[in-house]
Amino acid sequence: MTTARVRTILPIIGITAMAVLLTACSGGGNGAATAAHPPTGASTGTSTSASPTTGPTTAPSRSTPAATAPSTVGSTSAPAPSRGSGTAAAPAPAGTGASAAGARCATSQLSGSVADGGGSSAGATRVAIILRNTGAQSCTLQGWPGISFVGGGNGTQIGNAATLDRSTPHQTLTLRPSGEVQAVVTVRDAGDWDSATCHPRVTDGFRVIPPGSRQALFVPASGALFESCAAPAVHQLSTSALASF
Fold it and tell me: Do 203 and 228 touch, CB atoms closer than 8 A?
């Protein structure tokens, strides 16, 4: 009986010993695996120490001074001029507007006539070309009219236009309705030149262009016929500026 128990116990002991050995071997393998692979905490610590800290991200960036600087530096000390001041400083074009006395007289509101301009002298006759305001409003004239002889009954110009006597005053003149001004025209005698040089023609009046206009009016000679030189080399007429009388 005792021998049988011993035989039964021995195998159990052997099996138990083998189980212990197997357990020990198994525990040793886990330890080696743990040593070869550091714990998660260690891996995280290594990664954190190698990467830059978050400190630089909280430091002021280079763009911060520009963002805090005033956006209108210098604008209040040197304001740009307004459009109104520029317009006021610019001079108005000459002769484009009405003056205090009225607008420039248009040819359509004027009539002309011939009168004695102060008599004759040796080799010359002076006649007055009179311009009259036939309009209902006052207007102004200033300067020298354009004057030339015409003939043939159709307004054909004969000879050169009058030269301008720049020595005469030429202030701005106001013509009220029915008001008049005059220019004195000096006409040299055609006989001062020989016929071959003069090419004489009989005239029937004057073509008059008021100052500042491009339109002309015909002023008949009123019976005082003049002989004109048609040659382009001859200058027979000269005129003063318009003046009151």
Answer: yes
Residue 202 clears pLDDT 50, i.e. is over it? yes
pLDDT tens for 142-182 read 999 999 999 988 899 999 999 999 999 999 999 999 999 99
The tokens describing 231, both together, are 């040659």
Structure tokens at 16: 């138990």
Distance of CA 176 to the CA centre of its chain: 38
HSE-up (13 A, CA, CB side) for residue 148:
17
The sign of the CA dihedral 228, 232, 234, 240 is positive
pLDDT by residue (tens digit) across 83-118? 333 322 323 333 333 444 579 999 999 999 999 998
CA-nearest of 118, 243, 126, 105 to 183 is 243
Are 143 and 212 spatial neighbours (Cβ–Cβ below 8 Å)? yes
SS (HEC) of the chain: CHHHHHHHHHHHHHHHHHHHHHHHHHHHHHHHHHHHCCCHHHHHHHHHHHCCCCHHHHCCCCCHHHHHCCCCCCCCCCCCCCHHHHHHHCCCCCCCCCECCECECCHHHEEEEEEEEEEEECCEEEEEEEEEECCCCCEEECCCCEEEEEECCCCEEECCCCEECCCCCCCCEEECCCCEEEEEEEEECHHHCCHHHHCEEECCEEEEECCCCCCCEEEECCCCCCEEECCCCCCCEEECCCECC
In this structure, the dihedral spanned by the alpha carbons of residues 86, 88, 91 and 93, taken in order and rounded to 10 degrees, is 100
**Strand 237-239 and strand 180-188: pairing?**
antiparallel
